[in-house]
Every structure is written in C-alpha cells, then in structure tokens.
Amino acid sequence: MSAEGSILYLSGVTKTFDGFKAINNLSLYIEPGELRAIIGPNGAGKSTMMDIITGKTRPDEGDVLFKNSIDLTKHDEADIANIGIGRKFQKPTVIESLSVWENLELALAGKRSVLDTLFYKLSKSQADRVDEVIDLIGLQQRRNETAKNLSHGQKQWLEIGMLIIQDPELLLVDEPAAGMTDFETMQTAKLLKNISEDHSVVVVEHDMDFVKALDTRVTVLHEGSVLAEGSLETVSNDERVIEVYLGR
Amino acid sequence: MLKDSLLQRLVLSDQGSKFTIAALIVIGVIVPFLNLAMPEGSFLHVSDYSVALIGKYLCFALLALALDLVWGYCGILSLGHGAFFALGGYAMGMYLMRQIGDRGVYGHPELPDFMVFLNWDALPWYWYGFDNFFFAMLMVMFVPGLLAFIFGWLAFRSRVTGVYFSIITQALTAALSLAFFLNDFGFGGNNGLTDFKDILGASLQSNGTRAVIFICSVIALIGSYILCRYIVTSKLGRVLISVRDAESRTRFIGYRVEHYKVFVFTISAVLAGIAGALYVPQVGIINPGEFSPLNSIEVVIWVALGGRGTLYGAVVGALVVNFAKTYFTGSKLFVEYWLFLLGAMFILIPIFLPKGMVDIVDQWKKKHAQSKATEVNSKISGDAQEHTS
Ligand SMILES: Nc1ncnc2c1ncn2[C@@H]1O[C@H](COP(=O)(O)OP(=O)(O)OP(=O)(O)O)[C@@H](O)[C@H]1O
Ligand SMILES: [Mg+2]
Description:
Chain A has helices spanning 46-53, 77-83, 100-107, 114-118, 124-136, 152-166, 182-195, 208-214, 232-236, 239-246, and strands at 8-17, 20-30, 35-39, 61-66, 70-71, 85-88, 170-174, 200-204, 217-222, 225-230. With 248 residues, chain A is α/β, with parallel strands linked by helices.
C-alpha cells in the first residue's frame, strides 16, 4: 500500500524499548475525514503508536507520513501540533492551575510565538469561540473554575474541548471515556462522531459499547502490530481477536 | 480608558501587588526624606546606615522577584541567580573603578590599583568603554542577559529540566566564582572591586547621592515589578504556568517550550543584573564572594518563605528574612539563634502557611469571612427564634 491519498500513513514502523518490541512492523492507513477506532489488550502499543505519530517517541524504523508528504519522524512535538495533529492523552492532562476558560484560550488555534503571546489580545470572535466550546463540552457552570477542582470526567471533557478548539486536521484521542459514566460515555461517542464530520479522528478505547456507538472501522492492535481490521462485526468474529482480546 | 484598564490589570486587580507597590512608594519617599531633612539625633531621623541597609534589601527583593518570575511561574528552579546579580554588580563596579581615575593609591591615570599592583601596563580590552556610564549600564543588563540566553538555550534545547537544571546552575555560579577569584582574570581577584569614589561625578560618600541611589533602587524594584506583572498577566504568562504544570502537554498544544523558557530566563537574569548594579554602590564593594553558591540558595529561601508564584511574596520574603537576619545576628543575645530561627521558619511556615508568609493575609481574610458568616447565621437563627416564640 502506498501513502497516496492518506492523511496518516504508517509503514513498517518498529520501536524497541530495552529489547522489547512495543511496536513491531506496524502499518496503518487513515483516509482524510475518516473516524477510526483502535482496540487491543493492555500493552498492545496503542499509546506508543500515538507517541510516535506526535513526535514524543522516535521509531527505530519505518515511515510515518502525514498527508502523504510530511515525514513526521523529522519533527518534534510542537512542530507536529502546528502541522495539524492534536492529541488527547490517556491520563487526562489539563493545566491544573488555570481555569477552564484559560485552558481553552491556551489551546485556541492561533499564533504560538513568544512575542505573539506577550502582546496577545483576544478578539471578540475568539472569545465567542471559547464560550461556544465550553457549551459544547457542557462546562458552562464551571467556566471560571480552576481545572484542578474538576472531576475526572470533567477533565476528560475539558481536554477534548482543548483538542476541538485547537482545530487540528487529525485528532488522536487516547481512551476518552475512561472514568466516565455510561451516559457520559455515549455523549462522548456522539461528540466524536460529530467532530469526525470535518476532521480525521483516531480513537483508542477499551469500552466496547463506546466503540459500537462510534459505528466505524476498527483496527485491532496486538503486540505492536495490526491483528485485524474491519467493521466491529468482522473483527469481533475473528478467531484470533477473540482469543487475545475479546474472549478473556 | 486603555491606560486605566492596563493599570487595573497590572496593579489594581491584585491586592498583594497593590499593597506592595504602595508600601514601596511610601518607603521611597519617607526614608530619604527622614534621612536628609531630619536632624541627626532627632528620633525621626533615619541614619545613613539604615538607608544603606534598606537599600541593600531592596536590591535583594529585586533579585527575589527575578527568581520568582522563572521559578514561581515557569517552574525553573535556578540555583544560579546570584551569578547574574554578581555580574551586574561587577559591571557597575568596573564603571565605579574607572571613575576613580588618578585618585587611586598608585595614582595611575587609567589603570585601577590592582592592575598596577599586578604590573599590568594597559587596560585589558574587556575594560574598554566602562568609563562611560551609559555603556556600563548597558553591560549591567547585557552581560547577565547574554549569559542566561546562551546557557538557557543550550540547556532548554536539550530539555535539561528539574533538579538537573538546578545543579548545572549551581555549577555555573561556582565556576564563575573560581574564575573571579583569579588575579589574572582581571577583576581584582580575591579583593574584588572597591574604594569607589563617585558616580556620575557625585561623591558616593554624600548623603544626597546615597539618597538618590536609594530612590533609584525603589524605582527599579517597582518598574521591574510592573514589568513582571505585565508578563505574568499576559497570555505568555499563562503559557509559562502551563509549562510549569504540564510541560509536555504544552508542547502538544504547539508551544515551543524552550523558546518560552529562554525568554523568561533571560529577562529574569537582566533583572538580577540590575539588582546587583544597584547593590554595589550602596555596599561599596563587589568581590567573588557574591558568586558563592550559597547566595543563590538563600534567594530561593526568601522566595519559598515569602510565597512562590505571587511576585509580591518574593518581595515580602526577601525583606522579612533579611531584616530578621540583621536583627538576630546584630544583637549579641540572639546571634547564636539565627540559624535556629531560620530553621524554625522553614518548618513552621510550610505547615501553617503552605503558600508562604503572604498566605497570612488570605487565611486571615478567610477566618474573618467565616466568623462574619457565623455571626450572620446566628443572628438569622436568633431572629427566627424570636419569631416563633
Ligand atoms: N518509554 C517507554 N519505555 C519503556 N517501555 C515502554 C515505554 N513506553 C511504552 N513502553 C512499553 O511498551 C508497551 C506498550 O505500551 P502502550 O502504553 O503503548 O500500551 P497500550 O496499548 O496503550 O496499553 P493500555 O491499553 O494499557 O494503555 C508496554 O509494555 C509498555 O510497558
Ligand atoms: Mg495506552
């Protein structure tokens, strides 16, 4: 398969930690506008894959291309964020001592240089955008609350909000539903489906109801490479997938 | 309108800043006035000694402020800020040395005494220009700033953080200390620079000159304070906090963390340099002892005890700790207890005032609000009882 027409293309990617192959000859092809779910047992390498795409970890081998042309292994985290890839972490990370509003203002798409931020003035439309996203993630009541006082679920939402307001072309979302109630989980699935209408989204999640609600193509990762790929129905009937993941 | 809102943002919106600046203005007016206008012997008279002492502490407060900007807001624990302070001090010292001219012990028209003593026959190139006040003042800011820029760029680009960064900043100041102790380094070695005569033609021994330098220190502290407020209340300030709280996250949002760190570290070093430059004419000497690693650690103590990440906490901490130190080490009765007292502060303040001394005000306010609330509550329930009876 070539990178032609992809937004994200991984081919033959390998990463070894102290002799342990966390990612093993992994290949992946994401189309523009696609919503892709990634599942797999603990330690399958899902988060490590995101680390490689976002420049946190350098692969030992293999190609990682964005939009068929940009070699992501040659860029660092800040570059990659500005190129158009946003990420939500497995462990929700928001800026604890800033308010909900300030967290979103920080992530709001815009210039990122030292002088630009020193003399920054928020425009009316930007302020409206922040409030819009606060509405979207349902934190109106906690608008001026310091992020450290939010519940786990609310932090997840805030981080998703930061991702939305950053407005990247490709969103990598690592376990967004962890620690959420069933209702919140379904809300999150709906939100991500919404976002995927004009963005490409890759979601890692263990919650099968969540994956079902996404109703999209699924990739199963196991021991650092792709075990199966297809609709949720196809992969859940796959013998090997049942053996390593679903059947336990 | 715009001016009003800027004043609001920088000073008025923050109680601590408002009071600190007001207090500094009062000090800046009252102290020189009482020193110059009140006759000696009058109980309102502030002695020359006190003026110099308070002036010195204002310089320390500026140094603490500089440290709080990088440590309190960006999480960079520099254990080398004393080095930037000392470099600023040396730049000022060099100007003051050149001002001595041929009035030195050896009467050489150009060379400072220690160079004549070393049998040098010409001024080293790096002493050129220091006879010019404006050039020297430029160097006061430029030399610490450049060092911080290069050092910060190398360290932050390689992502040296946390305790590793702290250790190399200690190494930096220790290395400079060794270099400045060398006679051949050209800064007076062990003895440093001293025996200053005048500044801009005005005698350093005169009350008037000293009062002016004192006022300059107050102005520098207030000006720097407002500059720091501008930085920390801008969006850049929120990026700094973000770097402090979650450095890696900040990168994934697209901010070049190393640029922000270099920027704030350099600004902070420049402020430290200015503090050093104001310090030297007030104490009359600068020597390599100022590079001592312990000095840099003391600054951290002032900021930690005063209250990190507030700016005014750094100012309060520097002033309180230093006055306490002077008081205790100055009286024969207490001199032995100073270290115990410092130790006690170090244990008690974090327990009772986790955010530093300035937390006292917040806690008091809370208590006040609480007791008021209970008062109101009991009044209401009292009223209710009256009604039912
Ligand atoms: N920086 C690292 N150093 C050493 N080992 C690592 C590192 N990062 C990941 N690993 C290892 O690589 C393997 C894959 O980890 P990864 O976090 O990618 O799994 P995952 O699929 O996200 O699992 P989970 O579902 O638990 O989040 C694990 O065995 C992990 O211990
Ligand atoms: Mg993971």
